[in-house]
Design a protein that fits this description.
Blueprint: H1 5-31, H2 34-42, H3 48-55, H4 57-87, H5 93-122, H6 124-141, H7 143-156, H8 172-180, H9 189-199, E1 211-212, E2 219-220, H10 225-235, E3 239-243, E4 250-255, H11 264-267, H12 272-278, E5 288-289, E6 293-295, H13 300-310, E7 314-318, E8 324-329, H14 330-338, E9 354-356, E10 363-367, H15 372-379, H16 391-399, E11 408-410, E12 416-423, E13 426-433, H17 442-447, H18 450-465, H19 470-500, H20 503-511, H21 515-525, H22 527-556, H23 562-591, H24 593-599, H25 601-610, H26 612-630, H27 638-654, H28 660-672, H29 677-680, E14 682-683, E15 690-691, H30 696-706, E16 710-715, E17 717-726, H31 727-732, E18 749-752, H32 757-765, E19 771-775, E20 781-786, H33 787-795, E21 808-812, E22 815-819, H34 824-831, H35 844-852, E23 861-864, E24 867-874, E25 879-886
Parallel strand pairs: 2-3, 6-7, 15-16, 18-19
Antiparallel strand pairs: 1-8, 3-4, 4-5, 7-8, 9-10, 10-13, 11-12, 12-13, 14-20, 16-17, 19-20, 21-22, 22-25, 23-24, 24-25
Helix pairs in contact: 1-4, 1-5, 1-6, 2-27, 3-6, 4-5, 4-6, 4-23, 5-6, 5-22, 5-26, 8-9, 8-20, 9-28, 18-19, 19-22, 19-23, 19-24, 20-21, 22-23, 22-26, 27-28
């Protein structure tokens, strides 16, 4: 009975779907990143099959390739029957075979290989979620066959050097490259740079960013307070190191802002020694603080943590001999992360540290004291960092003497250093000329194309054998089968290597101008081209091995019937292809993906040239199909991608490559762009402000009590902010007026409360506006935010030198006392107080003001759930101290 056309078509369509299922599943599971795999491990449901396959890649490959080969062989047989019986029933067997082969190759390439694989690479996680569970079920079904193949592979893999290497460490460089390669929509360039800086915190030594000893502004203890204040004003620094006899004996830090707690007229004529002896010992208001000394080799990530714990903002660095080598401040480390920040007392520093030369892009103009690490990072240079800390120091070692302006020297990497300015024995400025990139040697492409040379040799032998003895024909066909098997292994293995290659390591090699890495990088970055190349090569090799195998069987066993010959050929060719053309090379190439991809880079490049027409056709059709399918596909949202980056940072912490503080900074940064000024501002009710006619004496007392150095000024009502008074302006004034009015800076900066804080930080980072006022939709001031507030959203909270570590006192298990400015978040988190959240307050005093609408008198009591709040100290301006007593139970501490 003749079979109608429809069953043939349904069968072929079904087999194409199965082929796409198997090939796409393999590609998707191999393309999963470490972050995606870790995320799937943490989830339950249908992700267990994905994790199981990832942890057992050999089971994955055997399952996929066995299924794929069975499907493809069945497809070819049905296609031959369709051509013979329905399409060309009158044609010869040769035409039947050629047409069936051509149709099989084209259809399988486009619908069974290229389209599903290209789509799977772009949507690896979603594709894996759909296909992994049924694929796992299939792997269970074929367990006996899988066990047999596994035993064969176990015997063969050691012979071919395919033992899996020890697990790779998850390095800081991996993290940096991973963040660097994320799409701009997920992580814009400025955020990527901040992340990169955060990742380097545990690698950069303090001496790389320090103010060197020769530039440190310090004064001896023999100086008077007035002289020291004058020096501070002249230099623009508010913290001045104090030393006895010589700078290596630093004994304290002079804090200009602490003068607000003293009557300057009473102490300005005293020397620092006299002040320390007669005055400071008898007061709780210090002016000279203990220095914090550390080794210059301390990593700045750890140093930042120590500065926060020590509640200080300046570290004195010692060298290995015990001498002072420089100083580092909290601001220096912060600027290493978020970039330069200026305030109203900073000197003009508009000259950039380094620029590309306007006339020659290969020339970098830089100052001598810039660190080598920073230059390498900014411009992709490979200057040896072990030779010196700064580029000026590197040039000094290169010359071996103090060079003159205009002299130049070329290092071993071909980088030329020309001196532009010097200051005494220091190189102050120089030009760096970078050599041009190396161009890959095209001759090597052909020289290394070994598999293609063998193919040309086999064709020659077969052609010669057509007119010689049968034995030569058998040998020629056997050689052709072997070469096609090698080519099949080469292309199928290359596909796996290109999908599994470490993109981070390859990017690093590309930056070093490695020609092979550039070839691989280009293919990896263009998955449709890469798949077209490897799959066209694989399918052509498989078709050729089938043709030659059929001829070989016919020559060895000429008496066999066509059906039996075909059955034998299909059996042994399938086994050969499955083991030696698929499973074995894919397993080995996956284990050694980086090394083998680079080794076969040139043959792959030559294959691109030879197979270009067919690749172009298949690629064009595939692109159109994937574009059509992709229309309904949902790309990962930026929030979902940022969640992956958070997980990546957590993985870095677990692997020991990130400090906990670094991970926290990255997590905060990833939340940064979604936060608004309203969420981080100090609400109006919590602002400490003064009237514009406040006396200077009262202002200094308020500054001393609050610890703030910039205080807003209002006219009659706090809603009418007219400017800001900086504590340093009042202290530095030679003749102090009666009120603060002459010191009011009226150029205040106002932004809407809905403004994104990421945009606000960029906006004010290079201005001298360190305090910004937020307004609502009716233009009324509702709060303020400082640069420090914005930075703390990334770096974490800074403890000030004058912060009281004991601002919350637990008087009894059910009674505590705290300052009015105590954060609600602290009371909730550490003491379990259910204080309602509000849009316009963040402190307990702000909550009370919002609730009562006024400043309650001392002794006033308010109920808060099962607790009673008592006002212990308040004046007309603020609630200073409160007591909270629980009526039921005790505080959760």
């Amino acid at each position: 009975m003749e079979v109608p056309l429809l069953p043939y078509l349904i069968g072929l369509v079904g087999l194409l779907i199965l082929s796409g299922f198997f090939s796409g599943s393999e590609t998707a599971l191999c393309a999963l990143t470490r972050v995606q795999i870790e995320k799937l491990r943490l989830k339950r449901g249908n992700t267990s099959a994905i994790v199981n396959f990832v942890d057992n890649p050999r089971r994955l490959f055997i399952t996929v390739l066995l299924g794929n080969n069975l499907v493809n062989v069945t497809f070819a047989i049905i296609m031959v029957q369709l051509v013979e019986k329905k399409i060309l029933p009158q044609a010869s067997e040769v035409i039947h075979f050629v047409v069936a082969t051509a149709l099989s190759v084209i259809l399988m390439l486009i619908f069974g290989e290229m389209t599903p694989k290209t789509y799977a690479i772009k949507h690896a996680e979603s594709f894996s979620r759909i296909t992994a569970p049924p694929l796992w079920a299939f792997s269970i079904f074929i367990s006996p066959l899988r066990a047999l193949l596994r035993k064969i592979i176990d015997k063969l893999i050691p012979i071919f050097g395919g033992q899996p290497p020890p697990s790779e460490e998850f390095t800081t460089t991996d993290l940096q490259e991973f963040f660097k390669t994320y799409h701009e929509e997920t992580l814009p360039p400025d955020e990527r740079e901040i992340v990169s800086n955060i990742l380097q915190l545990r690698d950069i030594e303090a001496k790389e960013i320090m103010v060197p000893r020769t530039e440190v502004i310090a004064v001896p203890t023999s100086n008077t307070i007035q002289d020291t204040l004058t020096q501070a004003k002249k230099s623009g620094f508010s913290r001045i190191p104090i030393y006895r006899e010589q700078i290596d004996n630093i004994c304290g830090i002079f804090y200009v802002k602490d003068l607000s707690q003293w009557r300057l007229a009473e102490i300005n004529s005293l020397t620092i020694d006299e002040f320390l002896e007669k005055r400071e010992k008898n007061t709780d208001a210090p002016l000279i603080r203990e220095p914090f000394l550390v080794l210059e080799t301390r990593k700045i990530g750890m140093l930042l943590l120590q500065l926060q714990n020590e509640k200080t903002k300046i570290a004195i660095l010692r060298d290995e001999y015990g001498g002072i080598s420089g100083i580092v401040t909290t601001e220096d480390i912060v600027e290493q992360v978020v970039g330069d920040i200026v305030d109203e007392h900073d000197k003009d520093n508009s000259t950039p540290k380094y620029i590309k030369h306007s006339e020659d892009p290969l020339v970098i103009e830089t100052i001598g004291r810039i660190s080598i690490r920073e230059l390498n990072q900014q411009f992709g240079l490979k200057i040896q960092e072990d030779d010196a800390d700064t580029i000026g120091g590197y040039a000094l070692r290169l010359f071996g003497r103090i060079p003159s302006v205009g002299e130049s020297h070329v290092d071993e990497n071909g980088i030329e250093f020309e001196i532009t300015t010097t200051e005494g024995n220091l190189i102050a400025g120089l030009f760096i000329r970078v050599p041009t990139s190396e161009v890959p040697d095209k001759e090597n492409i052909v020289e290394n194309a070994v598999p293609l040379k063998l193919l040309l040799l086999s064709i020659f032998l077969i052609g010669a054998g057509s007119v010689t003895h049968t034995a030569i024909l058998i040998g020629s066909f056997a050689l052709a089968v072997l070469i096609c098997l090698v080519l099949s292994a080469f292309y199928s293995g290359s596909e796996t290597a290109l999908v599994s290659v470490n993109k981070i390591r390859m990017n690093q090699l590309v930056e070093t101008n490695d020609a092979k890495a550039k070839i691989i990088h280009r293919l990896v970055e263009s998955p449709d081209k890469m798949l077209a190349l490897t799959l066209v090569g694989t399918n052509l090799a498989n078709v050729l091995i089938s043709l030659f195998g059929d001829q070989l069987t016919g020559k060895i066993l000429p008496s066999l019937t066509d059906e039996l010959r075909a059955a034998i050929t299909v059996t042994y060719i399938t086994v050969l292809l499955l083991i030696f053309g698929e499973i074995l090379p894919k397993t080995i190439f996956r284990v050694k993906a980086d090394a083998l991809a680079l080794r076969f880079a040139y043959p792959l490049r030559l294959s691109e040239y030879i197979l270009a027409p067919l690749i172009y056709f298949v690629q064009t059709v595939t692109k159109a199909l994937v574009k059509l399918i992709d229309r309904g596909a949902n790309s990962p949202s930026p929030d979902a991608q940022r969640e992956e980056l958070r997980l990546l940072a957590t993985m870095g912490e677990r692997s020991g490559n990130l400090l906990t503080e670094q991970r926290q900074m990255i997590h905060r940064l990833l939340n940064f762009q979604n936060r608004t000024v309203r969420q981080v501002m100090v609400p109006l009710v919590d602002i400490i402000a003064i009237e514009k006619n406040t006396t200077c004496e009262d202002f200094l007392q308020i500054a001393a009590d609050s610890g703030y150095s910039r205080i807003p000024v209002y006219d009659e009502r706090i809603y009418d902010i007219v400017g800001i008074v900086n504590l340093l302006d009042v202290i530095y004034a030679e003749d102090q007026p009666e009120t603060v009015e002459p010191f009011i800076r009226t150029d205040i900066h106002v932004v809407p409360e809905s403004k994104n804080i990421n945009a606000l930080l960029k906006e004010i980072q290079n201005t001298q506006h360190t305090m910004v006022f937020a307004v609502d939709e009716y233009s009324g001031i509702v709060g303020l935010v400082t640069v420090e507030d914005l930075i703390e959203e990334i770096i974490g909270e800074f403890a000030d030198e004058r912060d009281d570590p004991d601002s919350i006192h637990l008087i009894a298990p059910d009674i505590l006392e705290c300052e009015g400015r105590t954060e609600i978040e602290i009371l909730e988190e550490h003491y379990g107080l259910p204080i309602p959240q509000g849009d316009y307050y963040t402190t307990i005093a702000g909550y009370i003001l919002d609730r009562t609408g006024t400043i309650p008198e001392t002794g006033t009591e308010l109920e808060l759930g099962d607790a009673v709040i008592t006002i212990l100290d308040a004046d007309t301006r603020a609630i200073k101290k409160i007591r909270i007593r629980r009526r039921l139970g005790r505080f959760n501490t």
